[in-house]
Structures are given as C-alpha cells and as structure tokens.
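Late entry, evening session. Most of the bench is empty. Finally got around to the prediction I had been postponing all week. Sequence below, unchanged from the version circulated by S.P.
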Amino acid sequence: MPKALCLLSGGLDSTTSLAMAKAQGFDLYAMSFRYGQRHVVELECARKIATQFEVKEHLIVDFDLRQIGGSALTSDITVPKDRPVSEMSHGIPVTYVPARNTIFLSFALGWAEVLGASDIFIGVNALDYSGYPDCRPEYIAAFQVMANLATKAGVEGTQSLQIHTPLIQLSKADIIRKGLALGVDYAETSSCYDPGTDGRPCGRCDSCQLRAKGFAEAGVVDPLITRFSGH
C-alpha cells in the first residue's frame, strides 16, 4: 500500500484526517511535535490514537518555539476565554503560532522524502476557524508547489508530493460525523488550548467552544466531556 505521512497533534481535526487517510488505503506514518506548547497533554492523545489506528511509525519531534514566543500557546500571553463564536473569524487571534504549519510541513516534507511517501495529510480547516493564515487553501497550494521544487526527489522526478487537506472546507459538525463513521474515539482527543494537567478541557477557550458547537450541531454528546464528568 502507498505510504501517507499524517501530521497528528492529538486533536479532533488531525485525528479525523488520519482516519480518512487510513480509509483510503494508505499505510500510515504519523508525525507529532513537542514545541513548547502550553497544551502538551495533546501528545499523550496522539500516542493513543497512533496505536489505535495501527500507525507504522510515530515520530514526536522536539524543538522549542518558546524561544520565539509571540503566541498565547508558546508564551505567557493569556489564552482568550469566553469569546463569542461570532468574533472568532475576525482577525488573527493571539493563539496563532507564528509560522507553525510551515515548520510542521517542512519537517513532514523531509521525512516524506526519506520514506518515499508522496502523500502528506494535514487536518487544517478554513471554515470554522478562518483566522489562521496558514490554514487557507491558497497557502497549502503554494507550499505544495514549493515542496516539489525543494527536494531531490521532486527535482529528479521520482516523487510528486501531494498535500491532502480533507477537512479544509468542512464544518466542525461534518468533521465529527465523518470521524464517528470511521471509528474515531473522540474521548481520546484533546482540543483545549489551556487544559488542566490531567487533560481536563477548560471549556472556555476558542477551541473548546468550537468543539462544543460542532458536537451540538452534529447532535452528538462529546465523549471527552462525558469522560471527565464521570458519567
């Protein structure tokens, strides 16, 4: 089977993207990052998900974006709480991590070339969260062009890299429906930007609110909330 390199944060979107790659018949290779993020508990979720989906190899790459800062996720900037959902699509929020997806995709590009994998999956979404510049279709298209110019395999014509963004135009509710149909256990995912040390979601940050909205619109109870409520 062809190999797919999947960027796996441990969150709802990246897990669904991984499940979709598996459903398409790819052998899965997953890459996660410990980059100094406030919500590092997501990596334990990523490990469990990689095991559940029988990923062939799961790399966790270490580097520290706290040295750069500039984001509520990698510095002491306060994570916004209780923002109306209507405000979340206006402007670029302080939870944007400068150049994060470019950095992630660059690592993925290097490993994909070594693996001989022509397919990279990333769970970016431009519909429910349009504030991030590196989640837009035009950004992904531009990176794909660059990627095929930047590698030995691309220049020699032995590999034509494709970046798959299966969720990019889906609502959060539709993402959840697709994941449930593919057997994703969302109780093992983490979306919160400011979770407790045990992984308990704050329920108030933008990501928690968008997740709650998605489950409500899908007509499904979020199993992560059920797990922490003890019911």
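Two things to note before I forget:
The domain at 3-229 is CATH 3.40.50.620 (Rossmann fold).
The chain has one domain: 3-229.
Will write this up properly tomorrow.
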